[in-house]
Model the fold of this input.
Amino acid sequence: MNISSQSASLSPSSLDTDTSPKNAPTNYRDYYDNFDMNTLLTEIFGEHVDDRLNAYMACCGRHVRDGRGDTIALVHEDTAGNVTQMTFSELDNASAQVANLLQSYGVQIGDQVATMLPRTPELLTIVLATWRIGAVYQPLFTAFGYDSIKYRMDKAGTKVVFTNQENRGKFENLAEQTKMVLVGSVADAQTWGDDNYSKSLATQPQTIEPVILDTAAPFLQMFTSGTVGKSKGVSVPLSALSAFYLYMHYAIDLRKDDHYWNMADPGWAYGLYYAITGPLLLGITTYFNEAGFDAANTRDFMIRHKISNLASSPTAFRMMKSSGVFDNVNDDANDSSKLFLRCANSAGETLNTEVVNWVETYLNCKVCDQYGQTETGMTCCEHHALTHECPVGSMGMALPGHTLVVLDDDMNVLPDGEQGQLAVVVSQSPAFYFRGYSWNEKQAFADDYYLTGDVVERHSDGSYWFSGRDDDIIITAGYRVGPTDVENTVLEHEAVAESAAVGVPDEVRGHTIKSYVVLKDGIEGTEEIAKQIQELVRKRLSTHAYPREVEFVAALPKTPSGKIQRFLLRSLSVA
Done:
């Protein structure tokens, strides 16, 4: 692992080998109509199709075996600006040590291993090590509070957690049920009674055979928010790798000479699927910026590392736009202070025309809007690498290997121009991999259809247009938040009798969370109580899920059966 204070001399790992398929298709309609899964698997894995039976082999081991071990897998910049690069060979050796450590803890095939770490080389190493022994990697977002962590660990039966000093306190009452490993100093680890990461690895061998599984075996354990009850478990099977490749190669258009940066946190699906798994599957360098979002830092990081392919969210693009720091970025005559972007990608919520125009004007590249879910990965995209009609404001076209339809309430397929629920036709979607929630928390299928819960409209050119949710999910700054989680946390405050959470339109974040609160008899709403409620949600649930606005009301609108009518509260919020 090499460390430097500047990154200008670093080159992406994939410059020394052409990972693109020969005679790659360029026309969307031709490729979509003639899609063949066996042809795709050969395109990805060549003669070694069984590499898909272990995610470590698919994303690292095969590159080392095939002579690409010296290519750079990761370029990481920490909060002080220090740059670290890791080759695939270095990841291979380091992940073997962690894999041996996990086996010494008794971790077996199918067991769950979690991290609560920032974007660091250690996080990437642990992910690959977990996959290597056939275990399942479980992300824990660093902003999660105690309740979110406990729920996920209890459901998954998490065997080992790797975290750092900054996050260790969140596990104070959870450590007895799992093995804790601290990434940090030996002294800090001893304070907690944890194993120290570096010390524990020092005696571990740098070789271990990968465990061969089958394509239905899970390699990621995700959780997705819902409007009723707790977050639902999503076990991602190895068969998802081919779908990840389709998105990375044909929608993202990731090329061998790209400097690729996906800004999403790997504690969430878009970051874990497409900032870690996707680029490494293609054998192409991924970039980690450990610093939190800041528009000036984002600009400087893109210039410093000559980022050519960017994946982000509408929220981040809106924050870049509003900051003004990009307004003159391409005016300087000095090439070293200009952007190098070839293309940009956006996911998480709808990308509006204003932002599209800003990206093209100030970032000087085309941005494509792309749609997906934690359950399914990306399924509807504007494709950079395939030519098709791409109207501004649309979600794009069905990802190859997926058949999409629009359904009415009776599960009838609607004609173009009518709004209904977006669904995947499972029997006609060979690249589709989702088969149901981990613990059967919800029925996601109706006959041959997977129901997304999103309301869309299909146009005659085959493009899809997002209209909204048919439930009450709140998407804030690209994060999906279930209102029930917020409401239940607010109810923990001793003064609260009832609570409802809704999303309120926000120019920067897309939506912010607003809590309507009914207080117990005899208690009057004050600014102090509102602040206490906000801090409670921050601490217990997550920093991205707290209500930025709290309004005290006498009663909540409800149906005769007692269900809260959040749509009425939403209409009040925008009135």
